[in-house]
Write a structure and sequence with these properties.
About 55% of the residues lie in helices and about 10% in strands. The protein is mainly alpha-helical and about 290 residues long. The protein folds into 2 domains: about 15-160, no CATH class; about 170-285. A two-stranded antiparallel ribbon has the order 1-2. Strands 3-4 form a two-stranded antiparallel sheet. A two-stranded antiparallel sheet has the order 5-6. The radius of gyration is 24 Å and the shape is elongated.
């Protein structure tokens, strides 16, 4: 796995690009993730990326901004066997490892400026840059997360989320363009976060589909302007008949939820993008 390369950045050769051969991604075992992260953390620690928050232990110990790191982690993660990290990493569960990734992302900062040297003491730095620290940290661990399990990433908001299904990355990354930020844009982003967040369940996926269907319902008057009546009815028929929006005896509930909910989510998300674009075009032509 090339350092600094994400799954999206890997070069895909002809047979994979044309769909004749499915792309092969070797899924890492949790032990491999831990072993690789041990090296990543050691490198960041050695380069001073955690000095500002954690300080430095040892003969010339000094405290960082968090003070007692062990107590901070115990309070915020409700665990008492996670620190020191390198001594306990091999015993982490998946949840504990991901929790630690997020906690480290909260406190990583890149050392910049002049080195402040005190006789016999560990180097300190004049300034620390949290934005650049997080950028470097994400660049280092996201290739690792992308190849583990179903595929994950550490986002710029310092949350670990599942990666979108292959081929759906552009759709999931693009934001809805609409003047109603509160009722449309934010609600769609929250639905996407609910669908992709780590540990999301079938119930979460069903809720995310329902949330998108509700946004479409909110836009129904606009939808009527850009779709014919039958297309408009079919949009809501899908969610209503598959037991997503209402609860009736006539609904279909014996379908493979993992597969169908994923399909419905992307279908509704794509429809929202199409409808908002069509409505903008409709207005620009003086029809709104």
């Amino acid at each position: 796995m090339a350092k600094g390369k994400t799954a999206k950045q890997r070069r895909l050769y002809y047979s994979v690009r044309t769909g004749k051969v499915p792309p092969y991604v070797r899924r890492l075992h949790i032990v491999e993730v831990m072993q690789a992260f041990e090296k990543i953390y050691s490198d960041f620690q050695h380069q001073g990326y955690f000095l500002e928050a954690f300080g430095s232990p040892g003969e010339h110990e000094f405290a960082g901004k968090l003070g007692n790191v062990y107590e901070h982690i115990k309070i915020h993660l409700n665990k008492d066997r996670l620190w020191p990290l390198l001594e306990n990493l091999a015993f982490y569960s998946e949840d504990e490892l991901f929790d630690m990734f997020e906690l480290l992302a909260d406190h990583v900062s890149k050392p910049v400026g002049d080195v402040i040297r005190e006789k016999g003491a560990v180097d300190r730095y004049e300034f620390y840059d949290k934005r650049e620290g997080l950028k470097d940290f994400r660049k280092a661990i996201n290739p690792l997360l992308a190849d583990y399990g179903r595929g994950y990433e550490l986002t710029v908001k310092r949350h670990i989320c599942a990666l979108p299904d292959r081929g759906m990355e552009p759709l999931m990354a693009e934001k809805i363009v609409h003047p109603d930020h509160t009722n449309i844009v934010i609600r769609v982003e929250l639905a996407k976060n609910k669908f992709l967040r780590r540990g999301s369940t079938v119930a979460d996926h069903r809720d995310a589909v329902r949330d998108l269907a509700d946004v479409l319902e909110f836009l129904r008057d606009e939808v009527k302007l850009v779709l014919n009546r039958n297309d408009e009815k079919d949009l809501f028929k899908l969610a209503n008949e598959f037991g997503v929006r209402h609860h009736r005896q006539t609904q279909k509930t014996d379908y493979d939820e993992e597969i169908w909910l994923s399909w419905m989510f992307h279908y509704y998300l794509g429809t929202l993008h199409a409808c908002t674009r069509l409505f903008e075009k409709h207005k620009s032509q003086g029809k709104g």
